[in-house]
Amino acid sequence: MAPMGIRLSPLGVAVFCLLGLGVIYHLYAGVLSSRLAAFRQKRTVDLRELLALSIEAAVQGGREVKRIRLEDALEERSKGKTKEGASEKLTLGDLNSHRKMYYLIKNTYPYLQVNSEEHDNSDGEATIWTRNIPSEILNKIPEGKLVPAESVTVWIDPLDATQEYTENLRKYVTTMVCVAVDGDPIIGVIHKPFTGFTAWGMVGGAANVNRRDSYNANNPKVIVSRSHAGKVKGFVQQAFGNNTEIIPAGGAGYKVLALLDVSDEEYEKADMYIHVTYIKKWDICAGNAILKALGGHMTTLKGEDIDYSGSEKNTGGLLASIYIDHKALVNRLPPWDENKY
Questions:
Q1: What is the pLDDT, as a whole number, of residue 264?
Q2: Cα–Cα distance, 155 to 309 (Å, whole number)
């Protein structure tokens, strides 16, 4: 008997059954889709594991950077101009380091957002992390911390200070990885390929570097980019006086380490780091996370926190300090206009 007492032919019965199956299929598909979406939303990652992976990625990239420099096989070329009009260098060191770092992270966590300074059209690398967490991390951070995977953005700089790399000014060269959660810098790794030193920090966890015992906010030594030291000089002197010592240096990673207690004779010691021009987030995120883990600060020149989600651009300049009243420093800075720099 068909519904409502209607008698159907055999063909009608078949059509009715097919319609019923279609309804059941769509209902089932909807339930399955909802469950898959819920599963994706619940996917998590462990920050302690991400710290260990970030260190391994920076070290692997650093090996390529060092090898290519020592073999003098840079294959240097330009990938365009910076906003200031300087040639933006690209070498085989940048590209090989990118492949090692990017694919190690993506092969381990394919669902994470990973932003790199470099891109290439190769088929990638088959490397996968061993999930070995160094004892130093286990001792300093006894427990892991889970966060939603969709909240994580990874920033990698396969070779910071490429200009200096081409000039063989090795002390400025670093590889860097940063993990941001909901836009906040949480994990930072800065690795020096030519010495093997690696600095790391995790906000709410630990760090393997420390701040110095004292800093001078009244007559500071200010570290700036050597590529445009002249532009920043007037800005700094207007804030802190004409006798302010300005240290030109290459690489954002190097400049952050210059604020810390790093037992490395290559480092000039600075009291703060100022940058007045456009800079990209893979250059600064790792240093920001390390400073934050140690109680320091990195903000725009107007004192605003930098959001490490979305676009790679930071157009607000940069002020980094530690163990100094950061807000008071911001208040001493002259009015800043990004179009002026």
A1: 66
A2: 10
